[in-house]
Automatic annotation (TrEMBL):
Protein name as it appears in the record: 6-phosphogluconolactonase/glucosamine-6-phosphate isomerase/deaminase
Record has Ion transport as a keyword: no
Keyword set includes Hydrolase: yes
Residue ranges, compositional bias (Basic and acidic residues): 264-273
Any single Gene Ontology cellular-component annotation: cytoplasm
Domain Glucosamine/galactosamine-6-phosphate isomerase, residue spans: 11-232
InterPro entries in alphabetical order: Glc/Gal-6P_isomerase, Glucosamine6P_isomerase, Glucosamine6P_isomerase_CS, NagB/RpiA_transferase-like
Taxonomic superkingdom: Bacteria
Region of interest (Disordered), residue spans: 245-273
Record-level Gene Ontology MF annotations: glucosamine-6-phosphate deaminase activity; identical protein binding; isomerase activity
Sorted UniProt keywords: Carbohydrate metabolism, Hydrolase, Isomerase
Length: 273
């Protein structure tokens, strides 16, 4: 089934649209089980979610938050860890807090830690998965070549990913941990609904290949074509490579837009249906 595609005029509008969609899911289902990403792209979404939580009294105390990935060797107190990022940008602003689980990058046995996490995700049952996409088409740390059947596991990062994430480690790609733990592609696809966020021209080729290209493990995000309920939140630059027939000019809602429970309209300046 084609995905829904929502194109916003700016990064801020894209972030607001994604945050409002997450907030609506949480308001409709206070026990929402969600898998959330880190990275630069979702920062605006988290800022807006914190504002919505404050202003609209959104409650998180029955929800459960899982993190998508973590660097191998980094613990919650390490400045570069994703657990620390999430504490800083989202979790410390939520009171009362949701239950939180994440992959422990410092586990003595990373393989067992991945198996534990896979079981925890299966037991919870993910209602919503939110993802970014790498310039190389990765989702989570499922780098090009990751099988679509992959589960939560230890992976080796590509040079491109370490370069992209170097700003978080003083600008030095060599300082970025070479390995990580990530939720797998098959695990991601088990979520009931998936949101993907992308902004900026550097992401346009990956977005185009993920949505319009063939199903190809060389583009891990193309696996999302197998999922019946995906919404892409894009700014204009990230959407630049998409077929105008899929996304008619000036129209924010592309694809079928017809899956059950779809939001009938766009909000927050995120384009028009
Ligand atoms: P970014 O990362 O948001 O920092 O670009 C996205 C990703 O690599 O998944």
């Amino acid at each position: 089934m084609p995905p829904r595609i929502r194109i916003a005029e700016s990064y801020e509008a894209m972030s607001a649209a994604a945050a409002e969609a997450v907030a609506r899911r949480l308001a409709a289902r206070p026990s929402l089980r969600m898998l959330l990403p880190t990275g630069h792209t979702p920062l605006g979404m988290y800022r807006r979610l914190v504002e919505i939580t404050r202003h609209e009294g959104l409650r998180w105390d029955r929800a459960q938050v899982f993190l998508l990935d973590e660097y191998l060797g980094l613990g919650p107190e390490d400045p570069g860890s994703f657990r620390r990022y999430m504490a800083e940008h989202l979790l410390r602003h939520l009171n009362p807090a949701p239950a939180v689980d994440s992959l422990n990058g410092r586990a003595a046995d990373p393989g067992s830690e991945c198996a534990r996490y896979e079981q925890a995700l299966a037991a919870a049952g993910l209602d919503l998965v939110v993802l970014g996409i790498g310039r190389n088409g990765h989702i989570g740390f499922n780098e090009p070549g990751s099988p679509f059947t992959s589960r939560t596991r230890v992976v080796t990062l590509t040079a491109d990913t370490r370069r992209a994430n170097a700003p978080d480690f003083g600008g030095d790609p060599e300082a970025v941990p070479p390995q990580a733990l990530t939720v797998g592609i098959a695990t991601i696809l088990e979520g009931k609904e998936i949101f993907v966020l992308a902004a900026g021209a550097a992401k346009a080729p990956a977005v185009e290949r993920a949505i319009q290209g063939p199903l190809d493990p060389a583009v891990p995000a193309s696996a999302l074509q197998r999922h019946p309920r995906v919404t892409w939140f894009l700014d204009r630059e990230a959407a630049a490579g998409l077929d105008p027939e899929l996304v008619p000019a000036g129209v924010g809602g592309g694809g079928s837009g017809a899956w059950p429970g779809s939001e009938g309209r766009n909000r927050g300046g995120a384009g028009r249906d």
